[in-house]
Amino acid sequence: MPALALAGFLAGAPTLLSAQAAGEAGNSFGFDMAPETSQGVVEQAVKQIPTPMAPGPVEPTWESLKENYKVPAWFRGAKFGIFMHFGIFSVPAHGSEWYEKSLYAGGNDSVMKVIGGHGNFREWHAAHFGPVEKFGYKDFIPMFKAEHFDADAWATLFQRAGARYVMPGAQHHENFAMWDSKVTPFNSMQMGPKRDVIGELAVAVRKHGMKLGVANHGIENFEFINPPQELADRLKAAKADLYDPKWADFYNYADRSDRAMQRFLVNWYERNVELIDKYQPDLIYFDNGVDQRYIDPLKLQIAAYYYNRAKDWGKEVSFTTKKAAFAPAGTNTKTIGSILDFEGGPPDGIRTGSWVVDRPIGSSWGYIDGMKANSPETVLGWLVDTVSKNGTLLLNVSPKSDGTIPQDQQETLLAVGKWLETNGEAIYDTHSWVQYEEKGKNHIYFTVKGQDLYAIIMEKAAGAEVTFSSLGSSASLGQVRTIALLGGSSLPFKQDASGLTVTLPDASERKSAFVLKISGLKMNADSNTDSGNPVCDCH
């Protein structure tokens, strides 16, 4: 996450990237959660990788990745997916999914300085669970039972919401694997839920006809915890928590030598190979920790492995990453082998190519007590705005630690799905028009499929007509032949040089957001590209 967006994120508010950051961002050399190491250490870790390269045409070079990569066809048309943050942090349900970082944070932690420190956070923890010397973050694991987790019920809900793919968090910054792992003991099969959460979701999601992604934030773990010296000294003297040898590889704090870093990076690679081979994900999401260039040798290894394995499976797959993580040229308009992800909000205008924006359904990513879901109208506004700009919305849900999804989140999801049942034609398999919106008396968004233009009216002024000033008759645009209300009938209209005016049915036949399908005009070409990058570097 960009440093400028950090304060709003930790305060629980969705973050919006600036137009510059969204349009053509490189990598920040401030806060980005990348392991603080050197390319030499990373190269040494790559030499220690025990897993042989998967046979296939993709080599661990940018040139080979560029030659062999194409954005999956299914992703171009998906337009709506479900993300989720579900893990140990769901147990305390306080602050944010960065509970662990906040618990051990001190004045020396630059991230906590951004939000003014968390001096009272440990007091809250001590009041509810005991002092950190007696009850550390690891002690939440037995409390993370997920006793009501029902993968099929989740998948049914997401399908009814209209999602085309589902991306559960396989591992967050806390270093806990949500799958049955042989390469780390800190996993949901051996601890906590005692279930293969990712495995169960993989079966259920695919049974319901959706694609499966997995999100791995794990590389951030090595630098995640930075306690003040006085706390570190107390824990070290007691050999407790961060300094308990049994948990050394869980916290990754007591030993931060280059040798420890290499072990950590090798294990990160092994965990990803395990996820790839066990679950054959259609997408893999990496958070900010892979952004820096010195991580390139390692991520190229895992990219070559993933794409070669996918060729064996006969599947179209992709990574999704932020900023210039997979852009060796240093600009996100020249990404190689990955779909670009924007956190918190989309670009200010149309961006051709393939990209995704992830946003939380509520005030936090992981569930916290008292959080409220945004309304269906708000989420639909995000979806329509994103798709009209040629993007895809990845909406994050926040389950409770018992495995239930709060009722208000379910209601928002189901309402979005109900709208998509009637109007999904204007969302799925579409691309952007030459302009994404028209503001005035009404707020209208546009999408295109084939030679049909879809006008999505999100805010309708009073009156029985809607007028489009951007759709006046012209030789370049052509003449409208027919207009139909999705879910309704054909509508009368008048088109002249000043615009297009459509007579609407009675208000009782329209919902708060409705769609007009306009046929006969000359539409622009598909806005997508094989590489996923914009058609040009101009914005």
Summarize the structure in words.
α13 packs parallel to α14 (296-313). The chain is globular. The strands form three sheets. It has an eight-stranded parallel beta barrel. It has a five-stranded antiparallel beta sheet with strand order 9-10-11-16-13, covered by helices on one side. The chain has 539 residues and is α/β, with parallel strands linked by helices. It has 16 helices and 16 strands. Helices cover 30% and strands 16% of the residues. Residues 1-22 and 107-118 have low confidence and may be disordered. It folds into two domains: 3-420, Glycosidases (TIM Barrel, Alpha-Beta Barrel); 437-519, Immunoglobulin-like (Sandwich).
Count of DSSP-assigned helices: 16
| Overall helicity | 25-40%
The tally of beta strands, per DSSP, is 16
Q: What fraction of the residues are assigned to beta strands by DSSP? A: 15-25%
Averaged pLDDT:
91
- CATH fold assignment of the largest domain: TIM Barrel
Strand line-up across the major sheet: 1-2-3-4-5-6-7-8
Looking at the overall shape, the CATH architecture of the largest domain is Alpha-Beta Barrel
The CATH H-level superfamily of the largest domain is Glycosidases
Low-confidence stretches: 1-22, 107-118
Distance between the termini: 22 Å
What can be said about the biggest beta sheet?
A: 8 strands, parallel, barrel
How many domains in all? 2
Query: Which descriptor suits the 3D outline?
Result: globular
Radius of gyration: 24 Å
| SS-based class | alpha/beta
CATH class of the largest domain: Alpha Beta
Secondary structure: elements and pairs:
Blueprint: H1 3-10, H2 19-24, H3 39-47, H4 62-68, H5 73-78, E1 80-84, H6 99-104, H7 110-114, H8 121-129, H9 151-160, E2 165-171, H10 197-207, E3 211-216, H11 229-238, H12 248-251, H13 258-279, E4 283-286, H14 296-313, E5 318-322, E6 338-343, E7 355-360, H15 376-388, E8 392-397, H16 407-423, E9 437-438, E10 443-449, E11 452-459, E12 465-468, E13 482-485, E14 493-496, E15 499-503, E16 514-519
Parallel strand pairs: 1-2, 1-8, 2-3, 3-4, 4-5, 5-6, 6-7, 7-8
Antiparallel strand pairs: 9-10, 10-11, 11-16, 12-15, 13-16, 14-15
Helix pairs in contact: 3-13, 3-14, 9-10, 9-16, 13-14, 15-16
